């Protein structure tokens, strides 16, 4: 209950600050997408890094909780990525005048999004939860190796970028920093909240199917050959 | 190599070739094998019996290292002539598995399949060993035909030869009589008896109670993934084993 | 090392006996070249010619995805892969053997496709045949290493034909980028840009290491 209140509080403050923030002199009101877009991007990367990390720890320790951590992170990461891929082009259309640009950061993120969608598909196509977990862990780790490679690759291939390079405090106008930082805090809180809940669901599901299997086994004794 | 194994095992009669503790396997939610403690003494043949789906093949695959246990440990007693007993490579070198599947490449001939296995197990002279095994399994005429065209019984004979290529100290046999004609089945029984008398350890999964009674020195019955042992005197003849088996699987499944 | 040759011998002998995978790959690659010709006919201008290296690699990538999807097919009949897993052989060798056999098939396919491509698009590739082969080889190493790892996974999923391209394509991008850059440099100026070469080598290295290490977890049940 308290966590829920805390969460709602965080998001409410974030929304208020974003509402209250000054309107950008050049871009107009559309610049406020910043307060949504950047936290979503951070959440996406956080999700995917956690997926690879959880996968690596699962392979190492063999504890299925790490697998649930990886799976939950991937799902949340994909969710954030979808929101980012929606908010980004809207902002881009408003400021750059086009929905999409094949620049470095956009391309890498898009590829990463595909990698983790494939990750989720791989899991749903693999039978036997333990094998699914192992395959997915390997794929998740391979996926994260893609980030540096792709940055390298696309830098060579494409070169120029119109996406802002860094978003430190300096590049933000007066009054924009607090809503921006609050967005980060709220996003991390939402991420952690979703992660914990999703892991709990995973645990309950595993528990339920285990019980169901036991119960079914008692009701229907196997025919002897 | 084979004599060394036999001698080593005779000296330490009490040693266990296989020691499993709390061995468990889940397939997702399904429990294929409940925690199982198992000791197989060196030089003994253990018959593993039970209805279909009882977890017999799962047990063999776990011991062979083809599947990972969800919990529990397996130790392989030292046979005195190889490196650390629990080293994975040493385990693989020591085990011969005849599985449900034949493990053969259909596009290769019987001889090539055996040579491949011989090279994988670093047998001294794979070509000679392959010829020897083909003779043993009465496959000389079919040796240079591709396995893809073989009947189940002939393929099974190649599979048996493949499992024996490195003269393993521990034989894991999952229904090895599948598809064999009576002559070949008798020959395999003889070979297994000879192996047992020579001090090799074996686990034999079968539905053929008379062959089990003839070969085994102990029995393990798996039912719903739970193991129970039978009194040794059940093995005195086929009828007593049959009666004991029926009694064991008639009891209700544990929760 | 002897084990690697043994495994390669087994794979290549099997491939040679049936030949259906190689033939399927070659026919598919040639069909892709034909389709590409009609989809993007080479114009006279330089801009149209600029796309040719990309088109060549499109043909390569699609054919490799198709070909690798069957690379563990023969291992599944009779569970031969389990039989391999039983052997006292390092999993790394099993991976390298399989990847090596795949690489051999892919190299043949690449040579034939490049030849057909040159005919279709009226290119003279002879003067740059050797460096082009080297670039194709470097690209194939990267594609085959991850591809072998993923096909070992895909073959044991329920939707194996669908999942392999989805797994492979997003991760193939750095290799494809490097290879296309290198090929473009070769066709335009006769030299391979250093940055492209560097990219190919780095990705090959990373992918080889990842697949080599990952294979152990994919092979065991």
Describe the structure in your own words.
The complex is a heterotrimer of chains A (225), B (255) and C (221). Chain A is mainly alpha-helical and 225 residues long. Chain A is 77% helix and 0% strand. Chain A is built from six helices and no strands. Chain B has a single domain (14-53, 72-248), classed as Rossmann fold, CATH 3.40.50. The radius of gyration of chain B is 18 Å and the shape is globular. Chain B starts with a helix and ends in a 5-residue tail after the last helix. The model of chain B is unreliable at 1-14 and 80-85 (pLDDT under 50). Chain C contains ten helices and no strands. Chain C has helices at residues 2-18, 20-39, 46-50, 52-68, 73-76, 80-86, 91-120, 129-154, 160-189, 194-219. In chain C, helix 4 crosses helix 7. Chain C starts with a helix and ends with a helix. Classes of the chains: A mainly alpha (225), B alpha/beta (255), C mainly alpha (221). Chains A and C meet through helix 4 and helix 5 of A and helix 8, helix 9 and helix 10 of C.
Distance between the ends of chain C: 25 Å
CATH class assignment of chain B: Alpha Beta
Low-confidence stretches of chain B: 1-14, 80-85
For the sheet with most strands of chain B, the description reads: 6 strands, mixed
Q: What is the multimeric organization of the chains shown?
A: heterotrimer
Q: Give the helices and strands of chain C as they follow along the chain.
A: HHHHHHHHHH
Note the main sheet of chain C.
Answer: none
CATH architecture assignment of chain B? 3-Layer(aba) Sandwich
The order of strands across the largest sheet of chain B is 5-6-7-3-8-9
Largest interface: A-C, 30 and 33 residues
How are the elements arranged and paired?
The complex is a heterotrimer of chains A (225), B (255) and C (221).
Chain A: H1 2-20, H2 34-61, H3 64-95, H4 104-125, H5 129-157, H6 177-219
Chain B: H1 2-11, E1 16-27, E2 30-41, E3 45-49, H2 56-64, E4 71-76, H3 88-94, E5 95-98, H4 110-120, H5 126-136, H6 152-163, E6 170-174, H7 182-197, E7 201-205, H8 209-215, E8 218-223, E9 226-229, H9 238-250
Parallel strand pairs in B: 3-7, 3-8, 5-6, 6-7
Antiparallel strand pairs in B: 1-2, 1-4, 8-9
Chain C: H1 2-18, H2 20-39, H3 46-50, H4 52-68, H5 73-76, H6 80-86, H7 91-120, H8 129-154, H9 160-189, H10 194-219
Helix pairs in contact in C: 1-7, 2-4, 2-7, 4-7, 4-8, 4-9, 7-8, 7-10, 8-9, 8-10, 9-10
């Amino acid at each position: 209950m308290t966590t829920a209140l805390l969460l709602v509080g965080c998001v409410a403050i974030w929304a208020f600050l974003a509402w209250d923030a000054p309107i950008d002199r050049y871009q107009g009101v559309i610049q406020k997408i910043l307060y949504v877009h950047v936290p979503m991007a951070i959440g996406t990367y956080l999700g995917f890094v956690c997926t690879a990390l959880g996968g690596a720890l699962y392979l190492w320790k063999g504890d299925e909780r790490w697998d649930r951590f990886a799976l939950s992170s991937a799902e949340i990461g994909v969710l954030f990525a979808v929101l980012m891929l929606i908010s980004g082009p809207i902002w881009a259309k408003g400021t750059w005048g086009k929905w999409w640009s094949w620049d470095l950061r956009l391309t890498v993120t898009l590829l990463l999004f595909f990698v983790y969608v494939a990750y989720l598909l791989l899991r749903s196509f693999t039978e036997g939860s333990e094998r699914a977990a192992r395959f997915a862990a390997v794929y998740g780790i391979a996926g994260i190796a893609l980030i540096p490679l792709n940055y390298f690759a696309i830098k060579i291939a494409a070169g120029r970028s119109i996406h802002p390079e860094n978003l430190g405090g300096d590049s933000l106008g007066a009054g924009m920093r607090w809503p921006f930082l609050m967005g980060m805090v709220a996003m991390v809180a939402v991420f952690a909240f979703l992660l914990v809940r999703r892991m709990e669901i995973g645990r309950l599901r595993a528990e339920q199917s285990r019980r169901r299997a036991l119960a079914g086994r008692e009701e229907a004794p196997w025919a002897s050959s | 190599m084979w004599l060394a194994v036999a001698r080593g095992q005779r000296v330490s009669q009490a040693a266990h070739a296989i020691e499993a503790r709390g061995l468990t396997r889940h397939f997702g939610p399904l429990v294929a094998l409940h925690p199982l403690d198992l000791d197989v003494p060196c030089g003994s043949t253990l018959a593993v019996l039970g209805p279909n789906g009882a977890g017999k093949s799962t047990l063999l695959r776990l011991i062979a290292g083809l599947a990972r246990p969800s919990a529990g440990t397996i130790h392989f007693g030292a046979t005195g002539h190889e490196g650390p007993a629990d080293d994975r490579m040493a385990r693989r070198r020591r085990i011969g598995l005849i599985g449900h599947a034949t493990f053969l490449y259909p596009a290769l001939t019987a001889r090539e399949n055996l040579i491949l296995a011989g090279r994988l197990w670093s047998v001294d002279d794979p070509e000679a060993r392959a010829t020897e095994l083909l003779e043993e399994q009465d496959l000389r005429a079919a040796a240079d035909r591709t396995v893809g065209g073989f009947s189940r019984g002939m393929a099974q004979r190649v599979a048996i030869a493949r499992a024996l290529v490195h003269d393993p100290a521990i034989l894991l046999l999952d229904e090895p009589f599948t598809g064999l004609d009576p002559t070949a089945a008798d020959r395999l029984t003889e070979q297994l008896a000879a192996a047992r008398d020579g001090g090799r350890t074996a686990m034999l999964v079968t539905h053929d109670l008379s062959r089990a009674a003839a070969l085994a020195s102990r029995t393990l019955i798996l039912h719903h993934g739970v193991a129970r042992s039978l009194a040794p005197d059940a093995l005195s003849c086929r009828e007593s084993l049959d009666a004991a088996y029926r009694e064991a699987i008639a009891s209700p499944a544990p929760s | 090392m002897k084990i690697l040759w043994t495994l390669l011998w087994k794979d290549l002998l099997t491939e040679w006996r049936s030949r259906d995978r190689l033939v399927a790959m070659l026919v598919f690659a040639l069909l892709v070249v034909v389709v590409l010709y009609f989809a993007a006919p080479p114009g006279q201008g330089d801009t149209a010619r600029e796309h040719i290296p990309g088109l060549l690699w499109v043909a390569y990538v699609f054919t490799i995805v198709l070909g690798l999807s069957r690379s563990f097919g023969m291992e599944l009949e009779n569970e031969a892969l389990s039989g391999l897993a039983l052997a006292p052989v390092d999993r790394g060798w099993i991976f390298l053997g399989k990847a090596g056999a795949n690489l051999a098939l892919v190299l043949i396919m690449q040579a034939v496709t490049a030849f057909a491509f040159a005919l279709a698009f009226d290119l003279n590739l002879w003067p740059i045949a050797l460096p082009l082969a080297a670039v194709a080889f470097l690209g194939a190493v990267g594609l085959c290493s991850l591809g072998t790892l993923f096909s070992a996974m895909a073959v044991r999923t329920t939707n194996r034909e669908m999942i392999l391209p989805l797994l492979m394509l997003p991760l193939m991008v750095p290799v494809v980028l490097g290879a296309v850059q290198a090929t473009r440099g070769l066709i335009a100026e006769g030299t391979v840009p250093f940055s492209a070469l560097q990219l190919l080598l780095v990705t090959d290295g990373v992918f080889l290491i990842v697949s080599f290490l990952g294979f152990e977890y994919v092979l065991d049940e």
